[in-house]
Here is the input.
Amino acid sequence: GGRLHGGGGGVPPQLSGAHRKNKNKNIKKSSEKKSGSGCGVNLAYSESLDGPWEYVYDIVVGKKGTWDDCELTNPGPFVYPNGTVVMLFKLCRYLCPVKEWVTGMVTSSPLHQNSTIPQYLQPYKKRPRHTPIINTTANQISIEDPSNGFMDKRGIVHYIVHVGNNKGGSLHSKDGVSWFYNFSKFIAFPNYISYRDGTNLTLQTRQEPKLLLDSEGQPTHLICVCGPEEAAGERSKNDEYDRDVVSVSVSVQTFVCIQPLCTDQLLSQGQCA
Here is the structure.
């Protein structure tokens, strides 16, 4: 119980922002396994996005004898102003057939007084919750793939997930432990993308949401892996910079959707309806 951070406000250093206090290192997370028996999340960090990258293997692993004693995938990190890291994840649906659509969380351990290693480079072992945040396995509803988190100016942390194959929902928390959501009432993103020329592209899949954040930790763009009902990639070859959504084709059937959000700046410029 209790809050994961002191105070209520402040701009949270995101994982890249936290590195500004530590030689400007950038950081990314991967669920690639260290070995055939590995079941955790690995972490890679670098002075530059161009590398070279260093690795911390199994920074998060499933806890034996608990509901998350399984392979963890799709990590979504957030760093509180005091340096505490919270990471949402989903259980691997293929290795845990009884727990297909489960979202859980872990946090970093308190920083020891004499430690020279920042919290986000140490294993995340704390489990403030004894139950998952979301478990929709029984209803066979796919709610999964938490994004990276962000904190608004009120001090509330938000995450995005995909609901079903092609829509999105959001999670919200004041204390980082209790999470609130209403996926049937509030849609974070629909099953289509709209272009500046007034046309829409209906998507059969729109999953694995991630957020681009500005220097103040506020989201500016939504990134998803998309798959349209028509042949993917055909619309993304021409005129991509004149559109509100830049479609970067990565295969015949799927592509990456990068969509600007209605930020205060865009609203002031009259670029959002």
About this structure: Residues 1-24, 31-38, 231-244 have pLDDT under 50 and may be disordered.
